[in-house]
Amino acid sequence: MTADLFVGIDLGGTKINTALVDTTGRIVSQDYRETRAAEGPTAVVERMVDAACQVMAQADIAPARVRAVGVGAPGPIDSRVGLVVAPPNLPGWVNIPLGERIGQALELPTFLENDANAAALGEHRFGAGRGSRHMVYVTVSTGIGGGFILDGRLYSGATGGAAEVGHITILPQGPRCGCGRLGCLEALASGTAIAREGRALLAQGLSPRLAELSNGDPARLTARLVTQAAAAGDVKAQEIIDQAMFYLGLGMANLVNLLNPEVLVIGGGLANMGESLFAPVRRIVQEQAFRTAAEAVRIVPAELGDNAGVLGAAAVAMIAAG
């Protein structure tokens, strides 16, 4: 008899997080390992398969007792056929049939989803969005991504490319985004954007605190250091944070007007800023979104932390397996 156990695999550019999960979201066993993306798709897939075998072995669970495998992978993907199309942080990955390869190796039904969509499912099923029917999930870290739960279901769009929150145009003549366009939310409010502005500040010699924290080395300057400098009273660093949060708030107000969610869950590394992020975002949503929509939404931190992706991948398998 098949137990209600699922394997979730969260594939990232630098790490693979794999877990054996039950239907309540309890992690039975877990494996972390480096992706080693430079070794190419075949080697990475082998590491993913080995990680899945490892979590089953740790729990002394035979593969026959696992119902399905879910994989969250960086986009763009085609979830309908289990294809990883061409993610920028996985060199050499062009039209890789990841779902099929893992499924064949493990001899288990395997289902693929965009990693941000998977994390949204995780937060909806097991985290900050539990019990809601309409939820927006946004992750703010190196980049900005998202996932939409509408009427209790993940909304993926016509080709699986919905919820590219980071590529809403906020400032048409703004800085160039990694996608090549100008003024995307990701180019204005992500960790990468904050670090870019911090480096500019450093080059101008306008922030002694940032110079101290980074030892004057632009390559060491991260969003975290800009945040630390702001917290220490550096006025110029605080201006960078304030500007980024203003743009993030505008983006969230747009989503609230567009989708009228009950819950807006914000995760990712920058969510660790706490009220330094949430207070301005909530204020700007109240100022910029329609009153009824703004009053209806709760803007809350994600609850699952680094496990949002792996629990979401398991949720992808649970939903697909029925």
Ordered list of secondary-structure elements with their pairings:
Blueprint: E1 5-11, E2 15-22, E3 27-34, H1 41-58, E4 68-73, E5 77-78, E6 83-84, H2 98-106, E7 110-114, H3 115-126, E8 135-140, E9 144-150, E10 153-155, H4 185-189, H5 191-203, H6 208-214, H7 223-231, H8 235-259, E11 263-267, H9 275-288, H10 291-296, E12 298-301, H11 308-321
Parallel strand pairs: 1-4, 4-7, 8-11, 11-12
Antiparallel strand pairs: 1-2, 2-3, 5-6, 8-9, 9-10
Helix pairs in contact: 1-2, 3-11, 5-7, 5-8, 6-7, 7-8, 8-9
Detailed description of the structure:
The protein has helices spanning 41-58, 98-106, 115-126, 185-189, 191-203, 208-214, 223-231, 235-259, 275-288, 291-296, 308-321; strands spanning 5-11, 15-22, 27-34, 68-73, 77-78, 83-84, 110-114, 135-140, 144-150, 153-155, 263-267, 298-301. Strand 8 (135-140) and strand 9 form a beta hairpin. Helix 1 crosses helix 2 (98-106), helix 5 (191-203) runs antiparallel to helix 8 (235-259) and helix 6 crosses helix 7. The protein is 41% helix and 20% strand. It has a 5-stranded mixed sheet with strand order 3-2-1-4-7. The protein has a 5-stranded mixed sheet with strand order 10-9-8-11-12, with helices on both faces. The chain is built from 11 helices and 12 strands. It is of the alpha/beta class.
